[in-house]
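Q: Can I borrow your eye for a moment on a structure tokenisation matter? Would you mind producing a protein record, from residues through to fold? Write it directly below this note and I will take it from there.
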Amino acid sequence: MDKQSLLELLAQVQRGTVTPEAATEHLADLPFAGNGYEDIGHTRIDHHRALRSGLPEVIYAAGKTPRQTAEIFARMAAAGSTILATRVTAEAAEAVRQVVPTAVYNETARTLTSLPRPEGSAEGPIPCIAVLCAGTSDLPVAEEAAVTAELFGSRVLRLYDVGVAGLHRLLSVRDQLREADAIVVCAGMEGALPSVVGGMVAVPVLAVPTSVGYGASFGGAAALLGMLNSCSPNVTVVNIDNGFGAAYVATLMNRVVQESAAHAGH
């Protein structure tokens, strides 16, 4: 159960369409083993993380067997969670879709997603996150970020192959950049793109170094160090290839702004 689901249940009680007794039974049926998790042997699933932190627990599938990934995904689906699994192999995706046929696999991003219900119309404008990547080789990381941001309710602008080696490509999308409330920038090699983007916009830039490049890129370490030394003060950096983490933080940033604006309006 997430915060929105709980609020909807309480609103139904307030309107009288659900009795307090029925609501109590519903809450009692939530997977909750004393400390807010469901123990399935190999994993303790935190079904209530969305109530505490605003976004649900995410499945990191790397290192898990296809069977383990499928069992976790199925238990979360049964609980009505919005589900994101990252670093999912094609074999694991097939195992999950055997038990949750509606799960959506993005082969480029290596993600599996599931929404428990159609999204209703959001109050106020939908926050926009622009996801940029320097080159096509950065697409897996950029798509992981884009899928994460979309699943958690943002409008996503995908602006790909706009690296600094052809600066005119970036300049051609500068008007679109101004639509964004936060920007995720994925780049390998020397990792220069986030600094250039940061100098063009007045919003947070989440820089993602990718493990793309020749030997002296050291698997993304060169890009990481370059981004950490950015001269654009609106640039902050996440770990190598962590498109998920960048989009997660950008989503929380936008939610804080949205909630502050909503409270100010009241």
